[in-house]
Amino acid sequence: MAGLQTVQKIGPVLDLFTVQRPEWGVSEVAAAIDVPRSSAHALLASLVDTGLLQCRNRGRYRLGWRIVELGETLRSTVDVRSCSAPVLEELVENYGETTHLAIMERWSVLYVDKVIGTHNITVQGARVGTRLDAHSTAVGKVLLAQLDKTELQRYLTARPLRRLTPSTTTSPHALADALEMTRTAGVAVDMGETVSEVHCVAAPVRDDMGSVVAAVSISVPATRFASRRAQLERAVIAAANKITRSIAEAADIVPLESRNHPSLEPVGSCPRAS
């Protein structure tokens, strides 16, 4: 049981290390995850032994190079990012707006790829590696919509839904209704719910078994969104299907169509990333 408890604390410890705060001391970690200093020291030492952390001068800790190795291993074994990259670039080429690829990781949206738009005024978007609340983002709504009832109820009741802008949905009931609409339409919208001046549309990416594994989105300044919404929704759905088709073809399997998204039919394969 003690070993399991230690494993459960690894995630929260690694989550502490961010771009804004890349270095932590033992006492700081102990206070942040609410454990005795001795326990924090033992946990940090174990992570150093595995290469996930490195101990700097004065007992300060940073992420270790083992993280990079694991990242490269992930990139070589997961097709989603490589299949998505040329499609994200194609969307920017055709529409000039910033595109993102995101996954759900421990109840947050994790951005794993992006391509900056080409308009004179464009959305910079979330950096790769950024985590955002799922309920306030288009990609997050797409990913939440694929959860089963038990998982979704757990998400809705685990914590209050944060209000980030005046448009953010903070009612669990209203969010559940919005997710039902997302399942029916096959596309989700963020109407300035994370950043007031930014609107987004997103659609689900599926693996070769038909399960939603990621979401692709287009982010647009609010001033350009209303007149282009229908066009961008069609574009992001087509892009998501193109990635889905590419993932399935990489596995030599015809993708399974989702019962929840009968309108999302494959539109052809995407070019392989070089």
Tags for this model:
274 residues; alpha+beta; Arc Repressor Mutant, subunit A; Beta-Lactamase; six-stranded antiparallel β-sheet; three-stranded antiparallel β-sheet; 9 strands; disordered C terminus
Question: Can you characterise this structure?
Answer:
The chain contains 10 helices and 9 strands. With 274 residues, the protein is α+β, with helices and mostly antiparallel strands. It has 2 domains: 2-68, Winged helix-like DNA-binding domain superfamily/Winged helix DNA-binding domain (Arc Repressor Mutant, subunit A, Orthogonal Bundle), CATH 1.10.10; 78-250, Beta-Lactamase. A hairpin with a 6-residue loop joins β7 (188-191) and β8 (198-206). α2 (26-33) crosses α3 (37-50) and α5 packs antiparallel against α10 (229-250). The N and C termini lie far apart (46 Å).
Main beta-sheet annotation: 6 strands, antiparallel
CATH class descriptor name of the largest domain: Alpha Beta
Write out the CATH superfamily name of the largest domain. Answer: GAF domain
The helix/strand order is HEHHEEHHEEEHHHEEEHH
CATH architecture of the largest domain: 2-Layer Sandwich
The helix tally amounts to 10
Helix content: 40-55%
Estimated share of beta-strand residues: 15-25%
Secondary structure elements and pairings:
Elements: H1 2-15, E1 24-25, H2 26-33, H3 37-50, E2 53-55, E3 60-63, H4 66-77, H5 79-95, E4 98-105, E5 108-115, E6 131-133, H6 138-145, H7 149-158, H8 172-185, E7 188-191, E8 198-206, E9 212-221, H9 222-225, H10 229-250
Antiparallel strand pairs: 1-3, 2-3, 4-5, 4-9, 5-6, 7-8, 8-9
